Amino acid sequence: MDIEAPSSVDDLLKQHLEIMRWLNSPRMNTAEWHRMLQATPRNIEDLLATEGYLSPQITQNVSTSTEGNNGQDIRQQATFSVDPGPPSVIKEVAINFTGEITRQAADIKPTPESLRENWSLKPGMRFSQDRWNSAKRSLLGGLILQRYPAAHISKSLAEIDAASNEVRLELALESGQPYRFGEVEVYGLQRYPRSVVDNINPIKPGEPYSQARLLFFSLNCRPLAISAMWKSAHARKG
Q1: Strands 89-98 and 57-67
Q2: What class is the 2-83 domain?
């Protein structure tokens, strides 16, 4: 079994093609080999599509030879030659927001405008499934990490035009309500005063929720954890 493909996709195909993973399996038999040979072109197309290659040219060649004294051992060699074609590029990006973030004061961060500006997958860039997923995680994180921990993606669409190798992206995010920190509840300090925690706590009740502030508080608590005075710090909805 051999794959002939440009270096840009060669590793992808050799590592993830089903037929490559089964080559040395003891369960591989003649029937399974022929089934995989038929399925491999579609498998190649699906893998290339995740990297934005939507119009590949795939050539399959199977040669048969015989081995052994009586020529009864039949051996087949399959070669797939792959031209991935041009990669798809982003043509247009539409990012919409719903929820409280659309009604907040202009000076409150994050804003829809700042989140759109920080969007990483811009028009003209090459599309891939990994880049698309990473950009969505980053955008959602901009809400979850600050003020809107209940935010979620309400619509996600990558509209692909295989004829022009262009992709239109559409994304909608629901921010939900903004959160604020409440009072700090402390448990398990039977032998120590509450001031031990209060002195290292940077969070004030009523402050907008910030995962960075919560993490900073948790890091401040590490010396207590080392001395077996502290187990964990976390936020919960009140």
Answers
A1: unpaired
A2: alpha beta
Q: Which two tokens stand for residue 178?
A: 């903004």
Return the axis-axis angle of helices 129-144 and 30-50, rounded to nearest 10°.
50
Specify burial of residue 71 (Cβ count, 10 A radius: 0-12, 13-18, 19+).
exposed
Q: E strands within the chain?
A: 2-4, 57-67, 73-83, 89-98, 152-161, 166-174
* Tokens (6 digits) for 38: 């038929």
Q: What is the DSSP letter of 110?
A: S
Name residues whose C-beta falls within 8 Å of residue 146's C-beta, 6 or more positions apart in sequence. Answer: 109, 110, 208, 209, 210, 211, 212
CATH superfamily of 89-174: membrane protein fhac (3.10.20.310)
> Of 144, 162, 166, which Cα lies nearest the Cα of 153?
144
Give residue-wise pLDDT tens across range 147-198.
999 999 999 999 989 889 999 999 999 999 999 988 887 776 666 677 877 8
